[in-house]
């Protein structure tokens, strides 16, 4: 499970890239962090290793792949349903990645979101930073409920 959003598996989140069981019984697991420097990666690595050891594997290699970079587009349909069902605002399509310099902007592009509680589009950003780097905090102006939005990456 993802340590920051334990309703999702690493596969739901798209962090688990590949699992290869080799002929000699060893296992190679490839993962991609949601953010470079993601603080949950150490816990994710430990959890994977413990699960594999609990299931009898003794020779385990966990590789981190940084390319291509993770995107919220990799969240599975099932993962998106789990997020929605537990009150998260689901990310829209990730912004297009273009080669070359990335422009520095000091403001956040406005997002058009629906409240996961009542479906209203009358929502407003209360903080671009939530409990984790991948979430922003919003509030619905109709039902007044606060909610987390998983940021598009």
TrEMBL record:
Keyword line: Plasmid
Superkingdom as given in the UniProt entry: Bacteria
Domain PaaD zinc beta ribbon: 104-151
Residue intervals of the MIP18 family-like domain: 1-53
PANTHER family named in the record: 1,2-PHENYLACETYL-COA EPOXIDASE, SUBUNIT D-RELATED (PTHR42831:SF3), FE-S PROTEIN MATURATION AUXILIARY FACTOR YITW (PTHR42831)
Protein name, as recorded: Phenylacetate-CoA oxygenase subunit PaaJ
